[in-house]
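To: structure subgroup
Subject: Chain for Friday's discussion

All,

I'm putting the inputs and outputs inline so they're searchable in the archive.
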Amino acid sequence: MIRVLTFAAALFAAPVAADPDRLSILLGSAHPGGPGYDGRNPGLFVTWEDRGGLDLSLGVFRNSHGRGAIATTAALPVLDWQDGGAALFLGVALYPGDGRHYRVSAGDLIPLGGVQIRQGNLFVQIMPSDGRHADAVISAGLTFDLGGAQ
């Protein structure tokens, strides 16, 4: 956990982390069809919006196995409405020591993908699963515009 937090702190301190457009706080997750996962998943993500048409995010969080994790995603906005929108996203999460729990992984790197919906300061992400351990992962939290959009 300390190594994950140290790595994340170094990433956030790098010039690439300058002027993010959005800050999101992950509050938790649900795993329909998947008993035994911990839904208490606090986390912190920063997002740079509209970078080449994509929203790029990087963050740290407590995964559903109770350990620290890092994730990065690229989201393609597909719908926008007043004070909200929907996007398709792909990414990868580093789950140190937990990659073995997943049918699809590269060591401890876990692929991510799904739909994210934002309305005001609330967000929800829905990620389909293979049905082996859960039917889906649904995560939710709060998000705040930092006023840095290009």
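Points worth raising on Friday:
Residues 2-18+28-145 form a domain with the Porin fold (CATH 2.40.160).
The chain has one domain: 2-18+28-145.

D.
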